[in-house]
Structure formats: C-alpha cells, structure tokens
Amino acid sequence: MLNTIKDNLLLKKESLKSRLFSSYKSPLADRLIRHLGLKDVERVIHGKPDALIVLTKDSVIRMPLDRLSAVRCRVNSRALKALMRTSIAEFVPDVLEGGIFEGRLYYREERLSGVAIDLPLSKMDEMVVKAADFITKFHQETARDIVINDANFKRLFGREFTRLYPYLNDDYREKLARIEDKVKKAVIGKPLKTVWFHGDYKIENVLFDTKTWQIKGIIDWDLSRKVGLPLLDIFYLLAYKETLAKKSVVDVFTERFSKQDFTAFEKEIIEKHITSLAISTEFIEPLVVMFWINHVGLRYGIRPVEDKPAKSEWINKNVYDVINVILARS
Question: What is the pTM of this model?
Fold first, then answer.
C-alpha cells in the first residue's frame, strides 16, 4: 500500500514537471492550435524523428515535418484502423478525422486514459510481466506458420540489413554481410511463426490505470507490421526497462543481450513467450541480432541527428561497435 502511494506521488510530480517545463515551443503548433480551435491543449511535443505532437484532454494530433515522420504517421493511422478488427481493439486509440494545414497533413487519434510509465516504480516488474503477457497473447492471435525460404528471409530479415548497408564504410559493410550470412544459415529452411509486431514495445508505450495497475491501452504503432518477427517486442520491453534506471539501451545490448546473458526474471519472460508460440530456442540468438538490426535500421532510420560529427559518433557506438560485439560471438 505504501509503495503504491509513493508510486502515485512520484507519477503526479513527474506529470506536473512535464506540463510546466517540457512543452515544446513552436509557432507552427500555435497556428495549428488556433486553426483547430483547441481549448484544452495540455502539451506540445517535438516527436521523433521530426513531428509536432499536440496533446489535448481527449485527442492526440500528429503533424509530420519530414518524410520519415510522414511514413510513420501514416503507418500508425493504418495500423490503428486495422487493429479495430482484432481482440485488442479496446486497447488502441480510435482514428479521428485529420486534415491539411499550411500544406502539411496532420493526423488525429483518440487519447486513451491511463498513464505512460517512464520511471522505475516499485511495481515495475509486475507491470512488465503484464505487458509481456499482453503482447504474447496478441502474438498468439496473429501468429502465422511459415517456413523460412529465400523470399521469407528477404522480407523478414534481409530488408533490415539492407537499410543499414548504405550508411556503412566498406569494412563494416563486409562485416555486416558476414552477420547477415550467419543469421541466414541459422534460420533458412526452418519453421517459424510470424506475428503482428509492434516495433517499439517499451513500457512507456503501455498505458496503465494507476489505481488497479491494469493495462488500459497500447500506443505508438508507427513501427508496427502485420507480418513481423516474434520475440523482438519482448526484447524491446526488457531492454527498455533497464533504461528507466539510466542505462543506455546499447549498453544493455552489448553487455548482456548480445551474449544472451539474461537475468532470471528476463529468462522467465522469454521462455514463456517462446513456449506459447512454439518457437525453438535455436531462434533466440538470430532474433537477438535482429532486435538490434531492426532497432537501428527501422526505429532510428539510421539517422538520429543531422550534425555529421554527432551522427558519426552515434553510428560508431550504435552500429560499428555493436557489429564488432556480434562478430566476436561468432
């Protein structure tokens, strides 16, 4: 009881800080708000990669400012509409009417009740288990049996590698090709289940009722795929849990996940997930690799910053160093 009270006080404090200090200042957002006649704006956010996000009491308005954000907003909107035909319809936002303002598309969706958790609360392990069980059940519903032939490998594995090659120097293109070849040899010809992959399944994208700590919603489906790899959402959930304690996700991967050095808590969740989907344990190693390849290629689009020195530093740490760690395991 005492921990629950402390958790709620901490959440209220962080919510107040966010409202007071982290609202993004944008003349474009101000004009959009006036154009739409919004009277209940709570916060304006600069979303990644480059988008305006306006939060009102009842809705979320997204205006992409670059091509990558436009693609992600479109994917999110289409996914939400498709998810209305699944068993988790009540847990995803309804799509509301959007439009065009100053030559830019904007998208609107329902703002679900519940709280996004971005703090290491006392109930964190319990919440992670609930989130893992939720996505596992959804994956069971959307699972489809395949055999990984060349076409399936290209669609599910190869295109993620393809995203990275143009940004690497010759030496690391060759190293990445070796990793791709290793992954292909490990999975080709074997049966696997595809699932509806969320793509960014961190605890911050799971909304909770802070009275009952039950799941109220799942948001941010802009990286989702109806036909995707299993287990990756679980890796996202577990890796990003560590970032709430100020650990970088790349360090979590290089220090532990790349070696399959999981904690007892993580092992239990992973084993429950793969057992429920009848996935062989031999897929864990290649799917660990695909977690990171997908992470840097799809989630970040390999260009998190425009400044070249900073971009080079990011690629060194998040791509080149990780490639070396993965190859060292070979």
Answer: 0.92
Residues of the chain with CATH 3.90.1200: 116-328
CA proximity to 240, closest of 76, 74, 127: 127
Distances (CA, A) of 28 to 24, 25, 64, 72: 11, 9, 12, 20
- Write the pLDDT tens digit of every residue in 111-142: 999 999 888 888 999 999 999 999 999 999 99
Q: Give the homologous superfamily in CATH for domain 2-111.
A: Phosphorylase Kinase; domain 1 (3.30.200.20)
CA–CA distance, 278 with 287 (Å, rounded to integer): 15
Backbone angles phi, psi at 145, to 5 degrees: -80, 135
Pairing state between β 104-110 and 41-47: unpaired
Alpha carbons within 13 A on the beta-carbon side of 318? 24
CATH number of 116-328: 3.90.1200
Give CA–CA dist 330/61, Å, rounded. 46
